[in-house]
Design a protein that fits this description.
7-stranded mixed beta sheet; alpha/beta; 3-stranded antiparallel beta sheet; binds pyridoxal-5'-phosphate; 13 helices
Length: 397
């Protein structure tokens, strides 16, 4: 029986082995499908891997971003800044809290938000008394932002930092794992199936600050406490609990956490495969009229995405033609991302496309090639062959 219904080669896909399946099945047959021992074990595994003190598992990264914003007291009248070139969740977390969103345009070589632009925008915002409360740097494709410089600027202006490391599980920065929170208040991971490791749906908020961890854990489960010492009255009886804040049900299940624990055993191998395949793309794409990611990132990026950018001979709809040619040839290329500020929801808040020109230029030239641990060399060769065909057919004369 064929493994996939479609023949389209996806840009990313999960890798589940027998150990992963057994781990989930064991939990399925156990006493607890949720709120058992697996979630705390998974949290411990991840926080030890990244070298941080606290980790709160959630049902996805979007909810973890929301919890992080709530823990940092983001609310109406506040502003959160992030990159336009990210998934919408990086910005939406502020809107959930009733706060405003603004963006920092990207760096034309890393596609992460530009630290220079960040510094300039902070200086201007300080004069206008419109400093953000939170900044969310996004490690696009698994390449860490320059967190040291971002942290120093954030400190200078009193801004809190949440790293959206949805792409960067297993990546490192200055000799430490992304997630160590050495330069941030909170780091967010995603365990969606296209990401580096998966729990089906899942996320995690990591921090070195106990008060932030306690707040996120409280809000993750309805804002309910069961510890009598924290209550403002004597418990009415053994059944008693108190809701002390407006929380949510953002919990991860034990089934998911068991999968996550098992996937953690494979994380370093996954990242090594991604880097090896990325290196092979660098070789195979030599001489192509495309800009590859910076090869210096090979040692520390988790290579969630391999984004190429087409040269100026593919302006206008030639970019789209290359993309369509690849899709028509069963290469499941993608585009990460449509800049958030041009989504109708954000346009209705007043953003204009040319507010962030570098992001728009990126959008008009970027294509994400397939890259995931199970990608075979023949499949990768097929991608490169199709790309070669697309580029020669679709360039401006
Ligand atoms: C995937 C992703 C998210 C959201 O993750 P979910 O686990 O699907 O909620 C947030 N930010 C970025 C940058 C992502 O890629």
């Amino acid at each position: 029986m064929p493994k996939h219904k479609e023949r389209m080669l996806p840009y990313g896909r999960q890798d589940i082995d027998q150990d992963d399946a057994r781990a989930v099945l064991d939990v399925l047959m156990s006493d607890y499908l949720t709120q058992g021992p697996q979630v705390p074990e998974f949290e411990t595994r991840v926080k030890e891997y990244v070298g941080a003190n606290h980790a709160v598992a959630t049902c996805n990264a979007t909810s973890a971003l929301h919890l992080a914003c709530r823990a940092l007291d983001l609310g109406p009248g506040d502003v959160l800044w992030t990159s336009p070139v990210s998934f919408v969740a990086s910005a939406n977390c502020a809107r959930y809290c009733g706060a405003e969103v603004d963006f920092v345009d990207i760096d034309p070589s890393t596609y992460n938000f530009s630290v220079d632009a960040f510094g300039e925008k902070l200086a201007l915002a300080a004069t206008l008394n419109r400093l953000p409360k939170i900044v969310v740097p996004v490690h696009l494709g698994g390449q860490s932002c320059d967190m040291l410089r971002i942290r120093n600027l954030a400190k200078k202006y009193g801004v809190k930092v949440i790293e959206d490391a949805s792409h960067a599980v297993g990546a490192s920065y200055k000799g430490q794992k992304v997630g160590s929170c050495a330069y941030s208040d909170i780091t967010i991971f995603s365990f969606h199936p296209v990401k580096i490791i998966t729990t089906g749906e899942g996320g995690m908020a990591i921090t070195n600050n106990k008060a932030l961890a306690d707040k996120m854990r409280l809000l993750c489960s309805h804002g309910i406490i069961r510890n009598a010492e924290q209550m403002d009255v004597e418990p009415h009886g053994p059944w008693y609990y108190q809701q002390i804040d407006l929380g949510y049900n953002y919990r991860m299940t034990d089934l998911q956490a068991a999968l996550g624990r098992s996937q953690m055993n494979r994380l370093d191998d996954f990242v090594a495969s991604r880097r090896a395949l990325a290196q092979r793309y660098f070789q195979l794409l030599k001489g192509f009229p495309v800009q590859c990611p910076n090869p210096d990132t090979l040692e520390h990026s988790s290579f969630h995405l391999f984004v190429i950018r087409l040269g100026s001979e593919f302006q206008g709809n030639h970019h789209r033609r290359v993309f369509e040619f690849l899709r028509n040839n069963e290469i499941g290329v993608n585009l990460h991302y449509i800049p958030i500020h041009i989504q109708p929801y954000y346009r209705n808040l007043g953003f204009k496309p040319d507010d962030f020109m570098v992001s728009m230029e990126y959008y008009e030239s970027a294509i994400t090639l397939p890259l995931f641990p199970g990608l075979t060399y023949p499949e990768q060769d097929k991608v490169v062959e199709a790309l070669s065909g697309a580029l020669s057919l679709c360039a401006l004369p």
